[in-house]
Amino acid sequence: MKYTSRELKSKKNKNKIFVTAIDLIRKKGYDNVSINEICSLAGFTKGAFYHHFNSKDDLLIQLLKDVDDYYIVEVLPRLEGKTSKEQLIFFIQEFAYCGYGVGVDVVKNLFKSQTNALNDFMNDLDRPFFKILVDIIKTGQEKNVFTDNLSSEELAKYCRTFIWGVFHNWAMEYGAYDIEKKVEMYLNIFVKSLEI
């Protein structure tokens, strides 16, 4: 796909606002960062911010879209050659890595904000994140690795509940422990609950 110079500039501006905002949120906390501060530090007007984002919560939706992109570009190719069980473990570990990378305050605000738009996006079953998860489970069911007592979609929802539950606890405990190690500790028990 070829972009015009105007479209490229718009994408670059949106990305600069986004990166500045996420960096500020990591340093100061979501509630302590204003749109004015984001714009000032990024070198844009509030009008430019609102051209790309409807609200500060839209930054969180963009973050989840970036996670989807990460799964398409980075995670999906690295699933090849792994067993279904290894794929599922890797998939969930990578999500822990993403959560740790954005920081506890950002994760906490994913749960706290819960606007309709954010909630709808987090629960969208057509997101690449969810579709990849369903495919891993469906393949595992076809190979008699994972139970078929529930559909692949239901088991994927179960996995999503596990993932969000661990993240929620981590955020509510203010990141008091290493989320990646905690996920690794729980993961084997969790995955056994899916196996035949």
UniProtKB/TrEMBL annotation:
Source organism per UniProt: Maledivibacter halophilus
Keywords noted in UniProt: DNA-binding
Molecular-function GO term, any one: DNA binding
Protein name (Swiss-Prot/TrEMBL): Transcriptional regulator, TetR family
Residue ranges of the annotated DNA-binding region, renumbered to this chain: 34-53
PROSITE patterns in the record: HTH_TETR_2
InterPro entries linked to this entry: Homeodomain-like_sf, HTH-type_Tx_Regulator, HTH_TetR, Tet_transcr_reg_TetR-rel_C_sf, Tscrpt_reg_YsiA_C
HTH tetR-type domain sequence ranges: 11-71
TM segment ranges: none
Metal-binding recorded as keyword: no
Gene3D superfamilies named in the record: Homeodomain-like, Tetracycline Repressor, domain 2
